[in-house]
Design goal:
About 85% of the residues lie in helices and about 0% in strands. The chain has one domain. It is built from 4 helices and no strands. It is mainly alpha-helical.
Length: about 210
């Protein structure tokens, strides 16, 4: 029972990781930087960084839970799919840690240093280049994290599907084996009864033909 609960928590955790990253890329970052949505790019960037920091915290928590559960399942049931799902989840966890603890703090500090992105000062161009480089790197890391989490989810779900299919096939095999055993037993009983009947039958006296 508890293993079923662990499977459900792992699937929900991976789904939250994937869904939140996908929604942020499509529904947040892809919208707030469009013209007319917010008054300036500076305000859009500030809002984007705040959301990114909170997203990184949630990603770290979810990834930690998923890695612990999949690690336990891979240890107690060392199958290929379980181990692969665990390593992929661990890789997604490392990506989340790298993004949340290394890249995003520096991106936030550079954003504060630059200040105004709508009217960039000449003295801030070097910091802006560094900011752009780190932002692009973070985007790649997040994409890799998304793919790793999605692959881990697929492998874990595939393992559960195979396990469920095996449970459905097993009763059918048991029925066939039971039926074969019953037929064999009935056949053996019939042969034994016929043999016993033949052995217990009284012998007929020999007829003497008088001449």
């Amino acid at each position: 029972m508890y293993r079923s609960v662990l499977h459900i928590i792992a699937i929900v955790g991976l789904a939250v990781m994937i869904g939140s990253l996908f929604f942020f890329g499509v529904g947040v970052a892809g919208v707030i930087f469009q013209e007319g949505v917010l008054p300036s790019r500076t305000l859009a960037g500030n809002l984007n960084v705040v959301i990114l920091h909170r997203l990184a915290v949630m990603q770290g928590v979810m990834a930690t839970i998923v890695v612990c559960i999949l690690g336990y399942l891979a240890y107690t049931s060392p199958r290929g799919t379980n181990r692969s799902a665990f390593w992929l989840a661990l890789f997604a966890f490392l990506c989340a840690i790298y993004s949340g603890l290394i890249l995003l703090p520096e991106i936030g500090s550079l954003q504060l240093e630059i200040g105004n992105f709508d009217h960039l000062l000449e003295a801030k161009k070097e910091a802006h280049q560094r900011f752009t480089s780190l932002h692009s790197r973070n985007t790649v890391v997040v994409m890799v994290q998304l793919l790793a989490a999605a692959a881990s989810l697929v492998l874990h779900a595939l393992r559960l599907w195979k396990k469920g299919a095996g449970r459905e096939v097993q009763p059918e095999r048991q029925k066939k084996v039971k039926k074969t055993v019953e037929v064999t037993v009935v056949g053996n009983v019939g042969e034994n009864e016929a043999k016993n009947e033949k052995e217990n039958r009284p012998e007929e006296p020999e007829r003497v033909i008088e001449s």
